[in-house]
Amino acid sequence: MIDTEKVTISNRQNTRVPAESAVAMCDGTGTVVAWTEAAERLLGYSAVEVVGRSVALVLPCSDEAPTASEFLERCGAQDGWSSTAAVRHRDGRLLNVVLRVSMLWGRDRAIQWLVSVTDVGTPVPDSSETMGRMRESHLTRAPIGIVVRDTQLRCIWVNDTMENHDGICPERRLGNRFTDALPGFKAEALEEVMRQVLEGGTTSLHEYRMWLATSPRRDHSMAASFFCLLGADGEATGVCTISVDVTENRQARERLAVLTEASTRLGASLDVMQISQDLAELAVPLLADYVVVDLEQSVPFGEGPPTRSGPVDSRLPAFRRAGLASIHHGVPESPWVRGEPVTVPAGSPFTDVLRTGQSHLEPILNTAPGTWIDEDPVRAQMIQEHGMHSLMIVPIRARRALLGMALFIRTKDPVPFQEVDLLLAEELVGRAALALDNARQFTREHTAALALQRNLLPHRLRGGTAVEAASRYLPADIDSGVGGDWFDVIPLSGARVALVVGDVVGHGINAAATMGRLRTAVQTLADMELPPDELLAHLDDTVQRLAEEDADDPNHTFTVEGATCLYAVYDPVTRTCSMARAGHPPPAIVDPQGDVTFPDLPSGTPLGIGLGIPFEAVEMELPEGSLLALYTDGLIESRDHDIETGMDRLATALTQSSHSLQDLCTRATESGPGHAPTDDVTLLLVRTRSLDPDRVASWTLPSDQTAVRSARHMAAHQLTEWGLEGLEDPTTLIVSELVTNALRHSTGPIGLRLIQHQVLTCEVFDTNVSSPRMRHAQATDENGRGLFLIAQLSRRWGTRSVSDGKVVWAEADLEPSPV
Q: Is the pTM of this model over 0.85?
């Protein structure tokens, strides 16, 4: 029967039972006994004109057309007969319609007929295609229930199908109202609709739900049209209800809505954990009472290829719980929370899914002794406590890889899962698998890109005694986190440092890879102690060569389109800074008083242009404590403002001298427009230091053999003053070899300088521009062992060019090595 406490009613104007069907009732002779306003609107005849006349007035017409009673009797051979036909309008034209004739039973097995006509909307003769579509329409195929009631709402006619809709036999229904046929059934809402139809003489369409005795826990959706029946005088004689069970249609609409939402919701995230949680929540409570999503452990972290679908060995893949949803608050059914590892019991349906790659449907969960549940006490307890009785396990697969499994369980809902439920679950999981695979690929690429960026950019800035340094990098490509900007602070000989900021055209991983190649080239050229203008010239050649190599490679999809760079060398001994730029924005310099200037450096051409124009370097003296800002154009450029506005904004941010360098980096990078940057933003801030003159000693030596002895004596004396007596022997030996080489290969004055900073640096200047080369001397050679000896005694050595000669230098640790 019907659950008397559960009925809901709502207006529905889009159900498949057409409210504008023309409905008429005929007796056994084919005489029209009732008419409707809808019939008048469709066929043009009023009730006064039709009631009491033969239905042949409007029925299908042809030369061999049967009489009205013969036609109805033929239709009575099968309840719910329907077909397309042509009927006659009052004005004489023919209408192409769907015609349905149903037999009704009254008391004493009396028979009447209900004729419904629905306009197809195309002129006669209609096409066979239209006829075919209408034959397959819902109205044609769906069994309809019909009840005719008098003005007191007592049932006087009913068809056989109605008993299948609500389980009430005709004997119990005929002559009774709702309250008579179903004591306790709250039918006031439906009866109120019928009264309104009777009073207004109109047609109304509604949808309501009921719970039947045949399936007490599954609600049925019924769509019903209520027609006011008119007699020969045009007055209401009763109300006709035509109903259709649209439960499957409703469920299909709900599930289609869920699938539509799933496509949008699951594809909106690139977080595999969030996608898994969305999948679980989408399935509860529409499909299941409890849903979990377990991912193969490598998927959440974008690591390695996940397990392939197919046969598995004794070592089952590890899983991690990623999604949880339940009709109960807090999901008490799950012994594991999100993020925790999950065990997979051997010999269970889970391993079958892993082995076959196919879904598992168990409408009635087998909990009998001797099953796999006995080997899994944790899940066995949950099954018993929460009444789990039906389950589905669906593998999450993408590109032949197993990403995880989704478990669907019913507890409160007593209806077991069916094949249609499994189809929906597989459709949901399939859409989630696509989203998870995209997210997994993104996670892997994002992880690789970040690792690349971390390896390409300096982990820490080593300013030594020359500068204090801080940096900030903000990629425009927030998703991948990488770009083509780079910066560096490179220690040089003599306590100096090289400062560099560059910008490769483009964004993403390709620009980052090119940036890494250029940064490596700059470090190599910096080790050659080249001045800024010469270094940029060599770097320009490197960019052109890389572009040519990329152009010659048909498989290379990214070509270097150019780059800019600013390279500077700061000397804390002289407090001088030499810099040159290649199409890069000028640096900002803040003096100790807080005044900001942008020095007028020759701009130079961007790297890789190939114009052959030489770069120019400018040297300037910086007071101790000066702030030097090197940056890329993303910091000062925006869509809404010109570069001058950006430079003024940067200058304002840098004048806060009381702030730390990290705070200044934050202020400078956050002072731009509020929207996301359209270009990578890089800022390198350095605060200059000067080396105490007491830590530098320099001498000019004569160009004769006495220079070696004098150099050794002065070096030893200076080391004693600095408290570095332990370095006297190796240092004086290094000085001897360097001065000896200078005497041998140059004719001008010789300079000697010792610098105590993080290391001890020994420098010898001469006028010969040729750089010395270390070679392996033979046993009989008298010369050639000096540089070899220097390399053994120092931590590193080298040479650099100066304006009127060269400097050969060697560094030694301030703490002597233990013997």
A: no
